[in-house]
Design goal:
This protein has 276 residues and is of the alpha/beta class. 50% of the residues lie in helices and 12% in strands. It folds into two domains: 13-85, 434 Repressor (Amino-terminal Domain); 93-273, 2-Layer Sandwich (Endonuclease, Chain A). It is elongated and about 70 Å long.
Length: 276
């Protein structure tokens, strides 16, 4: 083939996906046109995925599995797509997100940055781009993080969401005044939703703050409770009642001493004035 592009499967997860797609296709003796016909797309689209010029999608991966007879198997392209999709996330976080999407109540405590569920796209993009500049992730992984966050935020409006933010979250400038104005406006808007409660844990709270690390506590529809916490390298989902329930108690204690929602919104609005 004159125009055949050789791939380096080790260059990126997308390249590995594309190279495997080509191998599976050629093993069956199919042309790109023949595979495209079975997938309901163009041969140009198949070529773009095979050469990693276009990322695969979940529907595309499922159609490929159906065409190759791999649906539901350990070698499915859907599973590879999910590995790519979650490759930019901490170990353990995708499992947490699966529970988050089914939770009846979500309780969050955050230090230093606005909780992900409340971040504006601009704020989230600045954080992701900063990680790229530090060499922690690739630009592709940064884009995946921002896109994945938008998917997570689609659950808002369904579960009850309780958020307590350390005062550092609203006072730490991320992305400059314009980004922060938009982000602080988003927090005020969030507080008007009848299914949410937003509180700030002020610096003046001192030693009465219950947590020194970010905490996520989920109450599931069956009233079971799970918690999630992160270190720098990985996340940990905990379903053990003996360790999760004390964390829920500590959260309630923190709610009792944090600013009420009205006072919290007033503080956020006051901070916003400083971004003019």
């Amino acid at each position: 083939m004159v125009n055949r592009k050789e791939l380096n499967p080790d260059s990126s997860p997308q390249a590995a996906y594309g190279a495997r797609l080509r191998r599976q296709r050629e093993r069956r003796g199919w042309s790109q046109e023949e595979l495209a016909a079975s997938l309901g797309c163009s041969s140009q689209h198949v070529s773009a995925v095979e050469t990693a010029r276009k990322p695969p999608t979940l529907p595309f991966s499922r159609r490929v599995d159906a065409a190759f007879g791999l649906a539901g198997s350990a070698d499915s392209f859907e599973r590879e797509w999910r590995d790519i999709r979650h490759g930019s996330l901490l170990e353990g976080f995708p499992e947490y997100v699966a529970h988050e999407g089914r939770a009846a109540e979500i309780r969050l405590f955050e230090i230093g940055i606005i909780p992900g569920l409340l971040q504006t796209p601009e704020y989230a993009r600045v954080l992701a781009e900063s990680a790229v500049q530090r060499g922690a992730i690739t630009p592709e992984m940064a884009a995946q993080r921002v896109s994945f966050l938008a998917e997570r935020q689609s659950i808002l409006g369904r579960p009850l969401v309780f958020v307590i933010m350390d005062e550092s979250c609203i006072r730490r400038s991320v992305g400059g005044p314009e980004v922060m104005r938009g982000q602080l406006d988003r927090l005020v808007e969030f507080a008007t939703d009848p299914r949410t409660v937003l509180q700030v844990a002020p610096f003046a709270m001192g030693e009465r703050r219950s947590f020194d690390l970010p905490v996520n506590v989920l109450t599931m529809p069956d009233r079971s409770v799970v918690s999630y916490a992160e270190s720098q390298a990985q996340g940990h989902l905990d379903r053990d009642t003996t360790s999760v329930l004390p964390m829920l108690t500590a959260y309630h204690q923190l709610q009792a001493v944090a600013l009420c929602q009205a006072e919290s919104v007033a503080m956020i609005q006051e901070v916003r004035k400083g971004t003019q």
